[in-house]
Amino acid sequence: PADKDFQQYIYDMMKEVAKLNPKAIMIDDDLRLIARPGKGCCCPLHLKKINDYLGENLTREELLEKSKTDKKYYDAFVNSQQESLVNLAKIMRQAIDDVNPDILCADCGGGGYSAKMYIEIAKTLAGKNPSILRISNGRYCFGNKRHFAFSSLRACRSILKINGEVDLIIGTHRLFSKDVEFKDLGLLVIDEEQLFGVEHKE
């Protein structure tokens, strides 16, 4: 996402989508870079940004190795990924605004350490419109029970982290929990009705 040609491509594609005049555009949860130790984008553009920030001249291999055990290098690596994604969200919003600033644009994300970033992306994509964030890794996944439990736990933690930061949250039944409060709740839509009893519906 730091490459100027790629940014232009994304701008052009988002503008074409906006020309279709949809009511809303939902950005998939693949708007991300893997930022676990040893994985993620470490292209020359990101590496230069990280080295400038750190005041060092690390090779890709050195950075990835240090980021596995040293928080300073890990944080610099993750921050470079997050800055790139937020900047890409700005480019997407600009493309939409150049066609019709009234088109809603929402994000799907919110998992793990990056909840703060997904809030910023959702607000950026919203432009002048309400910010919308669909929680990923909720009960939308498939797989075995252990995977489901882990994914649901991540979704629960994400909901607590973003609580009160965006205008609309699309999530799982975790939104019913007593420790989740809303600034100004107008409508709650949860596509899991079969899991609830009368108590939840009331």
Task: Tell me the layout of helices and strands.
Layout: H1 4-19, E1 24-27, H2 44-54, H3 60-67, H4 71-97, E2 104-109, H5 115-126, E3 132-135, H6 145-162, E4 168-170, H7 198-201
Q: What is the β-strand count?
A: 4
Radius of gyration: 19 Å
Largest beta sheet: what is the strand line-up?
1-2-3-4
Give the helices and strands as they follow along the chain.
HEHHHEHEHEH
Using the alpha-carbon principal axes, give the shape: flat
The secondary structure category is alpha/beta
Question: Largest sheet at a glance?
Answer: 4 strands, parallel
Poorly predicted residue ranges:
138-153
Average residue pLDDT: 76
Helix content bin = 40-55%
Number of helices, counting only DSSP H or I runs of 4 residues or more: 7
How far the N terminus sits from the C terminus, by CA atoms, comes to 45 Å
DSSP strand content = 5-15%
Describe the structure concisely.
The protein is α/β, with parallel strands linked by helices and 202 residues long.
Structure description:
The chain is α/β, with parallel strands linked by helices and 202 residues long. It has helices at residues 4-19, 44-54, 60-67, 71-97, 115-126, 145-162, 198-201; strands at residues 24-27, 104-109, 132-135, 168-170. It has a 4-stranded parallel beta sheet. Strand 2 (104-109), helix 5 and strand 3 form a beta-alpha-beta unit. Helix 3 packs across helix 4 and helix 4 packs parallel to helix 5.
